[in-house]
Design brief:
Blueprint: H1 3-57, E1 61-67, E2 71-85, E3 96-103, E4 109-112, H2 115-127, E5 132-139, E6 145-151, E7 154-162, E8 170-175, E9 182-187, H3 194-204, H4 218-242, H5 249-258, E10 264-269, E11 272-276, E12 283-286, E13 293-294, E14 305-310, E15 313-318, E16 324-328, E17 334-336, E18 340-342, E19 346-351, E20 363-368
Parallel strand pairs: 12-13
Antiparallel strand pairs: 1-2, 2-3, 3-7, 4-6, 5-6, 7-8, 8-9, 10-11, 10-20, 12-14, 14-15, 15-18, 16-17, 16-19, 19-20
Length: 369
């Protein structure tokens, strides 16, 4: 066979492989659409009934809304519910919008001490859909310049169910519900059921504080249990191999004091481990490429949280919009938002989303003191 014939044969074989791969991918997409389309239709029917029932009832729920770095807006009520069917893109099901308004009496005022930073904050609020009623500079009693920001008493809120192009799950985008901006929930097909819709409705009505904050999935708990058992066996082998006799409690404590190691906090993320000593802090985690640990996801802030070492312990200082979820081994999950917590023992955390929602960005931690 000549060189030209051989090259033609290879090109034809490559074209057949690409066509087969394309057919497999199209078949996989079709199967995923067959799962997600009926659920989007069921969600649409549920939302329409939900809106009709709420408007017929005519009652308004008390709402809390807080602007990070500025403070809460009190005395708000939510009402005027509406459903809207979005514009479909290609074969994707159209997005489904649940919309309502947070409204109060009077116009909330805020005094901002840094006019330059305040102007950036104003742009962020406008981008979130909040209306600025008034904005003026004023002099504080000490002579410094302040910016008085007056907001409209009405805040538009929207929840959107949508199917992303990769068809892996349904996204629920929460906008201006508890604070300005968006938060994205991920709903995987295996978790779609009527109970989830009921939980969503109670979340919208503020009857429960969390949505999609479920227990860690079985497979994640199993991996953690296996890791604990593996570390336990390694400690036992190490102890047996030393041939040392067991120490009494008092002597054991004194020995630990003599050979105490320098405090260390380790993070394991996507197969890579980062171990910190006190001198390595402060150390940041976030979406920014300048972070000590970069986590790229829509729900992760550029500077999500910082690790500091103060008072002989490692502290996690959350600086994010969506908060940080922390679950120690055998403990309950905590949501830390604009707050500080000590990281002790072992567990796992997830920036911006509960571990049960976003296992891809799960971070395992262990503190050795």
């Amino acid at each position: 066979m000549s060189l030209i014939d051989e090259l033609k044969r290879q090109a034809e074989e490559k074209a057949r492989q690409q066509q087969a791969a394309s057919g497999t991918a199209e078949g996989s997409q079709t199967r995923r659409l067959e799962v997600l389309r009926p659920w989007m239709a069921r969600i649409q029917g549920w939302l329409e009934q939900f809106v009709d029932a709420l408007n017929a009832l005519g009652e308004e729920q008390t709402a809390r809304f807080e602007i990070p770095g500025m403070g809460p807006i009190e005395g708000l009520h939510q009402g005027h519910y509406a459903f809207q069917l979005g514009q479909a893109k290609g074969e994707l099901p159209p997005p489904l919008h649940l919309m309502f308004t947070l409204a109060g009496q009077g116009h909330p005022d805020f005094l901002l001490d840094n006019p330059v930073a305040a102007e950036k904050r104003v742009e962020e609020l406008r981008a979130a859909g909040l209306h600025i009623h008034g904005l003026r500079r004023r002099r504080a009693p000490d002579g410094s310049e302040q910016l008085q920001l007056t907001l409209s008493p009405e805040i538009p809120v929207r929840f959107t169910f949508r199917v992303p192009e990769h068809l892996q799950y349904i996204e629920l985008v929460e906008r201006n519900f508890e604070q300005p901006g968006e938060r994205v929930h991920v709903i995987r097909p295996e978790r779609l059921n009527e109970q989830l819709l009921d939980d969503f409705g109670r979340y919208v009505l503020r009857e429960q504080a969390f949505f999609l904050r479920e227990q860690v999935p079985l497979e994640v708990r199993q991996k953690l249990r296996e890791r604990i058992e593996r570390e336990k066996r390694e400690r036992e082998r190490s102890s047996a191999g030393s041939g040392a006799r067991p120490l009494g409690k008092g002597l054991r404590a004194r020995m630990r004091g003599l050979f105490r190691r320098e405090p260390e906090l380790c993070f394991e993320y996507q197969g890579e481990e980062h171990c910190l000593r006190p001198e390595d802090t402060p150390w940041t985690v976030g979406r920014s490429p300048d972070s000590g640990l970069q986590v790229v996801a829509p729900h992760v802030s550029r500077r999500h949280f910082t690790i500091r070492y103060e008072g002989n312990r490692f502290l996690l200082v959350d600086e994010s919009r969506n908060g940080t979820f922390i679950r120690p081994y055998d403990g309950r999950e905590l949501l830390i938002r604009h707050d500080t917590v000590a990281l002790t023992g072992k567990g796992f955390l997830c920036p911006g989303a509960p571990a049960s929602e976003d296992q891809e960005h799960l971070i395992h931690y262990r503190s050795e003191e």
